[in-house]
Amino acid sequence: MRFSGTDTYVAPRDLTLAVNAAIALQRPLLIKGEPGTGKTLLAEEVAGALGLPLFQWHIKSTTKAQQGLYEYDAVSRLRDSQLGDPRVADIAHYIVPGVLWQAFECDTPSVVLIDEIDKADIEFPNDLLRELDRMEFHCYELQKTIRARHRPLIVITSNNEKELPDAFLRRCFFHYIKFPDRETMQRIVAVHFPTLKQELLREALEVFFELREVPGLKKKPSTSELIDWLKLLLAEDIPPEALRAKDAKDAIPPLHGALLKNEQDIHLFERLAFMARRKAP
Amino acid sequence: MLVDFFLHLKTRQIPVSTQELLALLEALQARLVGPDIDDFYLLARTLLVKDESHYDRFDRAFGEYFKGIEQLPGLDAEIPEDWLRLAARRHLSEEERKKLEQLSYEKIFERLRERLAEQKERHAGGNKWIGTGGTSPFGHGGYNPAGVRIGGDSAGNRTAIKVWEQRAYRNLDDQVELGTRNIKVALRRLRRFARQGAASELDLDGTIAGTARNGGWLDLHLRPERHNAVKVLLFLDVGGSMDDHIQVCEELFSAARAEFKHLEHFYFHNCVYEHVWRDNRRRHDQRLSTLDLIHTYGRDYTLIFVGDATMSPYEVDHPGGSVEHWNEESGAVWLQRLVAAWPRVAWLNPVGEDYWQYTPSIAAIRRQIGDERMFPLTLDGLERAMRRLASARG
Description:
The structure holds 2 protein chains of 2 kinds. Chain A contains 12 helices and 9 strands. By secondary structure, chain A is an alpha/beta fold. Chain A is elongated and about 80 Å long. Chain B is flat and about 95 Å long.
């Protein structure tokens, strides 16, 4: 099994290597990177490319590690007991398997996505050490140990909101998705808009990378924002010349709302544009 | 294998463990990458480095260690003449060299080429340039002509720009806070959970008790979710003698901000008087009256001072003792007011506990806030302070 990018996902060399290392050595892969660089998408694309089922576990601030393993549905059992349902005698009916359980029991190898692990409580990663390491856990209610039939490929994403504990990091491979350079970006755009005119693309990328260079932006526009923006440009049928008008009065690119998501950023950018205009003869 | 590289990373303060070295060797054994140093670099980075803030350090360490090795000999590469001469000088025994000297250079080259080919087959089966096999260019595992480093220019088809020399991650190194996790874990001792807001969570115990009371008919009980309800006022000493402790204070502050939802911070200089300020750059025009604070924040707030308490004793004991302005009332009076307003108090002192007895002002402050309420600003001291604050005595 080897991953080498897909028709809809451009994976640079370092990323494919990290994914292949995680596949070959069967370790979890921790992915970090700026928001909008395709961290979450990676798991879906890997699963799609390798033809494996994907199990997704989206983490929230209230998520507990136990929920990924299984949950005991006491309320259903209580209700069944009230109604005299014969199922109530067997506790196994009320054990709801979590994402990791499903992946461990899967007949084929699978891909598990643990999305935004940094959103959870600070102890959350520590509670999953053994499960990720040995790929097994004990179900107390059923008195049995669940072992992975095939070690799934586990992809974990993080936005760096919390530091992860060392013991957890030791067990993972790590990859930081760097912001794509111009060349990679062209390939990414080509994947999404195969019919885009070269001229428009060149101008748009020019504006885009210039915008990323603006100092002091709170949230730099990323790949997903560029794609959205291009979609808008196409929908509005904006000609390439409109993007080129750098020295003219309208130094602010059209539809910039798709690129800048923050009020302060827009203000900052408008101020800079205003100053640039004054400097121009 | 690769142990020297591993130790080199260690000395460059990249946190690597044996487990990761083994993983790297495993990956090499599994032939994950071909004989390409760029790929090896990417692989090693994926497996050994666990935080993007260490990428730059890794790039530098990698560059230092592998300087000059861009091409691996004995594979499909042209072997430059002068390199072979060098190899002959370094790696053949005295007798061999003597024998060789009588042969022509061409023969020497031929023999060396043979040897290279031989070596590669015997150890590694061909296309793995480093690792367990012994074709490691670092000279581990016996005789190994590949151990010679080739100068970049003479190697023929040199790889373009080496990835690690671009140092693309330089910016990340100093942006990311380091080592605050331990502080956060210590601060968590102060958590006080409370249930407030809408009842949205099933109260299992309550439901069971209610159902039992109901004679077996289901009686669902809901309750609000738990939140950390602890509220903290942080008073930070800035300037003067505190300059030595800026880093540890920054770490504490960044950890505290992440940990407590209700955190208010204020700055003071040396001792608290009638004014504090929130923004250090605007300390003269945006001052807050300390009395107002006392009236604003309720008694349920926990008061934490961070300061070295090192000053002239007059600054605590006497009206007008402040180094900055004329204070009508002494620092001691203000400290007393604060402690009376918020009985849960701790003073974190970046100066080591052993030195406290030599500074009279530290003793004076400890008299004002209570003797055992000052703790050193170390992990251990922080733990003790939080335990004390969380205890019933406050």
